[in-house]
């Protein structure tokens, strides 16, 4: 059967929902169908790495169910349905109903790809431990992980020292779980912080009792009759854990677009300032979109994109711009704010002591092009953001 909607949005993350909401706010009445590979609940993804410390059960993180969302937006919301076929010539997508082993063809006038980014899997986890290895990138993942914690105090080995790994480490530690971090890099938050600041965060974590295994890769993860899971590292050390959390980075989900012939790069679906892809009537925004060469993968850029795209789709072509929006890392053990420079700086000017450090990235002309702040120095966030160049001017 074929069903027609004026606008199809693939993805019900903050980008897809943000766009639908912005359109309705402008009074737009067109028919909208939204499709999600997951439960379609409306939730704030950044809160996932703050839930354990706050004692929030997964359902408390869901602001609205998919049904409530559909009512609010006057949209049809199709959940648990990954789209695998996009037919750009016939302006349609194919939806598979696995249970009924049937297909529905959905045709559109306008298509928006808001498919987000998926956790990278740097290695295959052995089936003998896979039931205790997790990656948390949506509310459904968080539900499974939360169920595995089962109100006990457990040992969690986190693989990865980036934003997601560090935030979950701090959150699980605050929830009185025993946390280890294992990563090949030698400092925490290597893509956000120069080494002295990454070390300051590492010291705050170590002092709190989080075990750091930095500069280490994993040789094996195996079940153990007494120890639960044992991770063997390249230097021969072993880490025992009850659960493993993989926080090994995110890759934009470009496969659907790429298979349909829409231009993509390793950093996302390529779109212009009006969020237009290489194909007419197909747009992209959020973690999947690379806007004029920039894929920020944060909330503020996707909110600005949703607003601009809603204006464009309602007849006011609007180019998006991104400000100098720093990343606020949710690590209460040592607050971190970072606005990483887009190009390699000529030098970092680093000042401060203990956990209170500010690092200013300068180009060869001495101009501020980025910054990183820890501890009490995070107060300089607003002042430095004003002085720094925008992400996308
Ligand atoms: P997603 O939320 O990933 O949504 C993608 C949607 O597409 C999903 O509904 C999925 O089911 C659907 N989908 C994908 N493929 C298909 C398909 N083939 N068919 C159908 N549906 C499909 N940012 C900040 O600015 N501040 C923070 O403090 C912060 N903290 C974070 C903490 C964590 C733990 C994580 C993981 C991220 C954090 N971020 C933060 C980043 C921020 O959450 C993301 O940038 C944002 O949520 C991305 O939204 P999105 O809608 O683009 O993608």
**Under the CATH scheme, which architecture of the largest domain would be assigned?**
3-Layer(bba) Sandwich
Number of DSSP strands?
Answer: 27
Structural class determined from secondary elements:
alpha/beta
- Cα distance, first to last residue? 45 Å
Polypeptide structure, described:
The radius of gyration is 22 Å and the shape is globular. Strands 1, 2, 5, 6, 7, 8 and 21 form a seven-stranded mixed sheet that branches. Strands 10-17-11-12-13 form a five-stranded parallel sheet, covered by helices on one side. With 393 residues, it is of the alpha/beta class. It has helices at 14-25, 58-61, 66-73, 139-149, 163-174, 195-208, 255-259, 299-313, 381-387, and strands at 2-10, 32-35, 42-43, 62-64, 76-78, 85-87, 92-97, 102-113, 117-119, 133-134, 155-159, 178-183, 211-214, 218-224, 228-233, 238-241, 243-246, 250-252, 264-265, 268-271, 282-284, 289-291, 327-329, 336-339, 347-353, 356-362, 368-374. The chain folds into three domains: 2-118 and 250-313, 3-Layer(bba) Sandwich (FAD/NAD(P)-binding domain); 121-246, 3-Layer(bba) Sandwich (FAD/NAD(P)-binding domain), CATH 3.50.50; 335-387, Enolase-like, domain 1. Helix content is 22%, strand content 32%. The structure holds flavin-adenine dinucleotide (FAD). The site of flavin-adenine dinucleotide (FAD) has 34 residues, from α1, α5 and α8.
């Amino acid at each position: 059967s074929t069903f027609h909607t004026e606008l199809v949005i693939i993805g019900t993350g903050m980008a897809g929902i943000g766009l639908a909401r912005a359109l309705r706010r402008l009074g737009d009445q067109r028919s909208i169908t939204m499709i999600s590979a997951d439960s379609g609940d409306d939730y704030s993804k950044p809160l996932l790495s703050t839930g354990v410390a706050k004692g929030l059960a997964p359902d408390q993180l869901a602001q609205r169910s998919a049904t409530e969302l559909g009512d609010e937006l006057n949209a049809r919301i199709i959940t648990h349905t990954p789209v695998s076929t996009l037919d750009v010539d016939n302006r349609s997508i194919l939806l598979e109903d696995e249970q009924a082993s049937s297909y529905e063809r959905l045709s559109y006038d306008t298509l928006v790809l808001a498919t987000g980014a998926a956790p990278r899997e740097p290695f295959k986890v052995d089936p003998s431990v896979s039931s205790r290895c997790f990656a948390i990138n949506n509310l459904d993942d968080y539900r499974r992980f939360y169920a595995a914690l089962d109100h006990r105090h457990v040992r969690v080995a986190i693989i990865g020292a980036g934003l997601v790994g560090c935030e979950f480490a701090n959150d699980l530690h605050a929830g009185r779980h025993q946390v280890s971090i294992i990563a090949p890099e030698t400092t925490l938050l290597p893509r956000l912080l120069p080494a002295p600041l990454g070390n300051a965060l590492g010291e705050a974590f170590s002092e709190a009792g989080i075990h750091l295994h930095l500069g280490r890769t994993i040789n094996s993860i195996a079940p153990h009759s007494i120890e639960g899971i044992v991770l063997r590292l390249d230097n021969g050390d072993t880490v025992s854990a009850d659960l493993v959390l993989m926080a090994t980075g995110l890759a934009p989900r470009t496969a659907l677009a790429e298979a349909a012939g829409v231009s993509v790069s390793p950093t996302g679906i390529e779109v212009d300032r009006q969020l237009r892809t290489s194909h007419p009537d197909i747009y992209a925004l959020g973690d999947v979109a690379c806007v004029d060469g920039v894929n920020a993968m944060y909330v503020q850029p996707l909110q600005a994109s949703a607003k601009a795209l809603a204006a464009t789709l309602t007849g006011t072509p609007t180019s998006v711009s991104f400000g100098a929006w720093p990343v606020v890392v949710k690590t209460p053990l040592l607050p971190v704010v970072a606005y990483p420079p887009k190009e390699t700086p000529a030098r970092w000017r680093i000042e401060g002591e203990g956990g209170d450090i500010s690092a200013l990235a300068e180009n060869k002309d001495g101009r501020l092009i980025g910054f990183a702040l820890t501890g009490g120095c995070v107060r300089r966030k607003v002042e430095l953001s004003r002085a720094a160049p925008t992400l996308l001017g």
